[in-house]
Amino acid sequence: MKLSIVIPVYNELATITEIVSRVRKAPFEKEIIIVDDGSTDGTRAQLEVMKRHPDVRVLFHERNRGKGAALRTGFEAVGGDVVIIQDADLEYDPADYPILLRPIQEGHADVVYGSRFLGGPHRVLFFWHYIGNKLLTLLSNVLSNLNLSDMEVCYKVFRREVLKDLPLRSDRFGFEPEFTMKVAKRGYRIYEVPVSYRGRTYQEGKKITWKDGLAAIYTIIRFRLSD
C-alpha cells in the first residue's frame, strides 16, 4: 500500500523542514506532495531545496488561494493507494499514521477521520475554539446523519478512489465540511480514531478565525442542499 501525503503550506518557514522530516520517517512506502499556496515568508525558497528529495514533489500557487484550493492541486497529483492530509504546522504528528491507516488496511473503512476529542494527548488551549468546533460538528452531524466527534480535524485519510467521486469546490477551510458532507451523502464507510494534537496560539502562527467558522456554517448548509 503506497501513501500519498498531501501537505498544503502557507507561510510555514518555521515548521516546514521539521514536518517534512517527520513525514519522511514514517515507515510506509509513500510520496509527499507539498503545495505552497503563495507563501511570502521564505517558505518557497526552503521548498526549492526540499524538492531535491526523490520522494518529495513540490507544487506552487502564484498567489494565496486557500487550503481547499491547495488540496485540490495536490489531489490532482496523487499516485498512491491511500491519501493522507497533513498540515504543515506541527499541530498533528505523523507518528499517528499507523492508527489512522489501520481501519483501511483491515478493510473496514473507505475514509478515516482523526479526532482530537477521543482521548489522545492534546495541548490545552482555547475554550471558545472548542465550543465552535463542537457546534460546527453538531450541525454537520445533524445534516449528514453522521456521529463524528471532530469534523474539522486535519487528519482525513481515504482511499484514492474516493477522490474520483467528489467534485470538491471550496477554496479555504470550507474544505472540511464540504468533504464531510459529500462522503456522507455517497455512503462511504467512515471510521474515527484518536490522534494527538499540539495546537498553536495565534502568536505561534495559527490562521483559522471566527470568520472561517461562519463560512463553515454556510458551507455545511450549501453542500447539504447541493452536490
UniProtKB/TrEMBL annotation:
Domain Glycosyltransferase 2-like span(s) in chain numbering: 4-166
Any one GO MF annotation of this record: transferase activity
SUPFAM superfamilies found in the cross-reference section: Nucleotide-diphospho-sugar transferases
Signal peptide: none
Alphabetically ordered keywords of this record: Transferase
Source organism, top-level taxon: Bacteria
UniProt xrefs under PANTHER family: RFBJ PROTEIN (PTHR48090:SF7), UNDECAPRENYL-PHOSPHATE 4-DEOXY-4-FORMAMIDO-L-ARABINOSE TRANSFERASE-RELATED (PTHR48090)
The protein's name in its UniProt record: Glycosyl transferase
Organism whose genome encodes this protein: Nitrospira tepida
